[in-house]
Amino acid sequence: MSARIDLSGLPNITNDVYVPYYYNVSRYLVLYGGAGSGKSVFVAQKIVFRLLTESNHRFLVVRKVEKTLRDSARDEIIGAIKSMGVDHLFHYSESPTGEMTIKCPNNSTIIFRGLDNKEKMKSIKDVTAIWIEEASELTLDDFTQLDLRLRGEHLTNYKQIILSFNPISSTHWLKVRFFDNKDANATILHTTYMDNRFIDSEYVRILESLKITNKTYYDIYALGKWGVLKGLIYTDYKIIDSLPKDAEIHRYGLDFGFNHPMALTEIMIDGNNLYIDEVFYRSEATTSEMIRTVKQTHPHIMSILGRADAAEPDRIKELRSAGFNVTKAIKNVAAGIDKVKSYNIYVTKNSTNIINEFNLYSWKLDKADNPLDEPIKLNDDAMDSIRYAVFTEKPLQIKPTLNTHAFF
After folding, report:
1. SS3 per-residue string spanning 232-272
2. What's the rounded Cα separation, in Å, for the pair 279 and 308?
3. From first to last of its 408 residues, what are the pLDDT tens digits of the chain?
4. What is the CATH number of domain 238-390?
5. 3-class secondary-structure state, position 400
6. Which of 113, 214, 224, 334 is 20 to 30 Å apart from 320, CA to CA?
7. What's the Cα-to-Cα distance from 386 to each of 71, 234, 249, 259, 336, rounded to whole Å?
């Protein structure tokens, strides 16, 4: 099959820093660094390259939560297939139970699974390679179980686990496992947005503005250095299995987006407790696509009261026409954050994007590294949606009164 395919143009669509790693055969290929570095794009390209040049693969692609794979790793792999001009060689399918696969004529298959579905994971056998996307979401035990699955001899394929992630906490098990203790079977590559020649200039401007607004945030998020973020807004929340069955208040919040994710979040409030669940979180999604998805996956959302970004009246109108009970949100960032922080916060374990934003959402800092009353406008899509749902108080309108003392 490889003899009929021209891959000579592969370096033209690959960032230079990654090109040598097409041929890396280490047991562990650890790709980490800052946002916008093109890590996931390259991993997708390498997977397609291996399927085209080898045979009989069962490539397992995993994340902590299965539903996040559709709009991340799966889309990246399909994008790589199309950019290589080999779309005609692959078949994409999804079973009625949501199991996603991509197949190649040389008896190779890419399987997508979430660690949240233990029964589906049990059925995966004879894996030849693994990609762990957003590896920082996993526990050490999760990784160990995957590592044990990659075993046995294979005549044509080398066994490799690719881990891709952005480092956040210097106490994370990944740092201990691969950085504090050197592994002779691991190859580690650090990259940043400066290694990505395909990145758009506007995103570069946003990342580099962090040098001024929060230098620590820039070091960790943009440069991908290990550390502890300064100025985190939400520092205390707990993970739960699911939303409660009933509560005093039940709403959803919606932050529109396209280039950045559109985020729809379901919240329940009971006394001093705020419960949060991720319903929809996707980049490059239209309002109609979001409506169609939510009607299929969370139809009950349509009947409860929702609050959406007031800056998008046409999209709110589209939601109402589709049967959603939605009104304009009140935009008061500081007061809204204070309101959210006044509760005991609980987030469902499947809300991986919300959890990620909680771990990154930070205040701007002054020159002395003291937090200002303004958050950094990055990693805030779910945060905005939560605030819209929770904060419903209109500013107090104080009418001027006549000063009668002036007449005496």
Report:
1. ECCCCCEEECCCCCCCCEEEEEEECCCCCCEEEEEEEEECC
2. 14
3. 544 677 888 999 999 999 999 999 999 999 999 999 999 999 999 999 999 999 899 999 999 988 888 888 999 999 999 999 999 999 998 877 667 899 998 899 999 999 887 777 777 788 999 999 999 999 999 999 999 988 766 556 899 999 999 998 888 999 999 999 899 999 999 999 999 999 999 999 999 999 999 999 999 999 999 988 889 999 999 999 999 999 999 999 999 999 889 999 999 999 999 999 999 999 989 999 999 999 999 999 999 999 999 999 999 999 999 999 999 999 899 999 999 999 999 999 999 999 999 999 999 999 888 999 999 999 999 999 999 999 987 654 555 544 444 333
4. 3.30.420.280
5. coil
6. 334
7. 21, 12, 13, 20, 9
b/e per residue 311-330 (b: at least 16 CB within 10 A): ebeebbebbeebebebeebb
Between strands 58-63 and 129-133, the pairing is: parallel
CATH number for the region 8-199 comes to 3.40.50.300
Does 8-199 match 238-390 in CATH topology?
no
Domain ranges within the chain, ordered by starting residue: 8-199, 238-390
Instruction: Give how far Cα 179 sits from Cα of 32, 62, 104, 356, Å.
Output: 11, 22, 36, 22
pTM for this prediction = 0.84
Structural tokens at position 167: 């480092």
Helix (H) or strand (E) holding 165: strand 160-165
For residues 162 and 132, what is the distance between their CA atoms, to the nearest angstrom? 6
